[in-house]
Design a protein that fits this description.
This protein is mainly α and 173 residues long. It contains 4 helices and 2 strands. The protein has one domain (5-162): Methane Monooxygenase Hydroxylase, Chain G, domain 1 (Up-down Bundle), CATH 1.20.58. Helices cover 74% and strands 3% of the residues. Helix 1 (5-42) packs antiparallel against helix 2, helix 1 (5-42) runs parallel beside helix 4 (98-144) and helix 3 (89-95) packs antiparallel against helix 4 (98-144).
Length: 173
């Protein structure tokens, strides 16, 4: 059975709608990463819990969108006689012409730009959380004197003495 250009256009339009949903999700994730960093700095646990609940509630929508995208991708791969792994937006644009081709190229460019921004925001958030963890670890070690690796000083008879031998918190019961 030969697929008509109208059927191909319908499939591509459906794919573009699904990809628009992906674009909106990526923009929302960019905003969430900014909110997350602000909440971590402010130590706003209530807002962090609310954000986690929102993210968990939206995971089903993401899965549905992903399944639709993969189904349409498989159908288009079948139409154009290639493997599903080869059916990319670049390949699709090469197969199309006119206005629909321009829409696919625009969507691809938009997704690539958002992907780069999302990667940068993710790395920024990861670095902030890593620094928070490092700072908390250092702070706890100093407060509880867990490492026992304080500054070593030597007294007049040559023996060593650890400076700050007492911790802020007494661990003995």
């Amino acid at each position: 059975m030969k697929t008509t250009p109208i059927e191909i256009k319908i499939k591509v339009d459906q794919l573009l709608i699904v990809l628009e949903g992906e674009t909106q999700r990526m923009r929302a994730n960019l905003e969430r990463l900014n909110e997350l960093r602000a909440m971590v700095v402010k130590r706003d646990e209530t807002s962090l819990r609310k954000l986690l609940n929102v993210i968990q509630s939206e995971s089903g929508e993401f899965n549905d969108n992903e399944l639709k995208r993969e189904r349409l991708r498989a159908e288009l791969a079948s139409i154009f006689g290639c493997d599903i792994k080869q059916m990319t937006l670049s390949r699709l644009a090469d197969e199309l012409s006119g206005e629909i081709r321009d829409k696919v190229i625009g969507t691809r460019s938009s997704l690539q730009a958002l992907g780069r921004k999302l990667k940068n925001e993710y790395l920024s958030t990861m670095m902030l959380l890593s620094e928070c963890a490092r700072f908390n670890h250092t702070l706890l070690n100093n407060i509880l004197d867990l490492g026992q690796t304080g500054n070593v000083t030597y007294n007049s008879n040559g023996s060593t003495d650890r400076r700050g031998r007492t911790a802020f918190v007494n661990l003995q019961f």
